[in-house]
Specification:
Layout: H1 3-24, H2 34-47, H3 58-80, H4 84-87, H5 97-115, H6 120-134, H7 137-146, H8 151-177, H9 185-197, H10 199-211
Protein name: ER lumen protein-retaining receptor
Transmembrane segments: 100-118, 124-143, 155-173, 185-206
Keywords: Endoplasmic reticulum, ER-Golgi transport, Membrane, Protein transport, Receptor, Transmembrane, Transmembrane helix, Transport
């Protein structure tokens, strides 16, 4: 554990809290992508299968359970819980996530896993890394279609992007300070890709804060 990883984890937890507040207090899912959160649920379930096989620490186990349960609850609220589900706009959330994100991630994971010998747990872990790198895409598409971004939703995306950026700093720090740190090129490439997807959002978020105006994304 180091400061960058702890800050990344807390940023991730804060993003979940902000989204839960957005749904529970405002009781409105407009501008929120169900498909992105379905993808994140798949990511966490496939990545944290080691909950049943390996114990690292109480902190580690609690964070894994937190990510799975809260993401599952978010999916449940948007799908089934009134009045939240009635405000979810399916017409704006149409990204074909299974076809264009889940399937390619599964194919890449299968190819990658063949290099090191076939292992189901390792295959699912690599799949989750690939999928997480692009899971935010349906949400970014929804926000671009809406144009104007509600404050809590904007803060949620900002915290999610900050979480990934801080994890990159964590990797750099560990590579410098841990002589036997195990490097994983798939994690690095996917982490950089995931952070890059937030770059445009960060730019417009910063511009809106600097000007004091409403936060909006170009809709063209």
């Amino acid at each position: 554990m180091n400061l960058f990883r702890l800050a990344g984890d807390m940023s991730h937890v804060a993003s979940i809290i902000v989204l839960l507040l957005r749904l529970k207090v405002v009781k409105n899912a407009a501008g929120v992508s169900l498909r992105t959160h379905e993808l994140f649920l798949i990511v966490f379930v496939t990545r944290y299968l080691d909950l049943f096989t390996t114990y690292y620490s109480l902190y580690n186990s609690c964070m894994k359970v937190l990510y799975i349960t809260t993401t599952g609850y978010i999916v449940h609220m948007i799908r089934l819980q009134e009045p939240i589900c009635s405000t979810y706009d399916k017409a704006q959330d149409t990204f074909l996530h299974y076809k264009f994100l889940v399937l390619p991630s599964a194919i890449l994971a299968f190819i990658t896993n063949l290099w090191g010998g076939f292992n189901v747990i390792e295959l699912l872990w690599v799949f989750s890394i690939y999928l997480e790198s692009v899971a935010i895409l349906p949400q970014l598409v929804v926000l671009q279609r809406y144009g104007e971004v509600e404050n809590l939703t904007g803060n949620y995306i900002l915290l999610m992007g900050s979480y990934r950026a801080l994890y990159i700093l964590n990797w750099i720090y560990r590579s410098w300070t841990e002589p036997f740190y195990q490097h994983h090129w798939v994690v690095y490439i996917c982490g950089l890709l995931q952070t890059a997807l937030y770059a445009d959002f960060f730019y417009y978020y910063w511009q809106s804060k600097k000007s004091g105006g409403k936060f909006s994304l170009p809709t063209n």
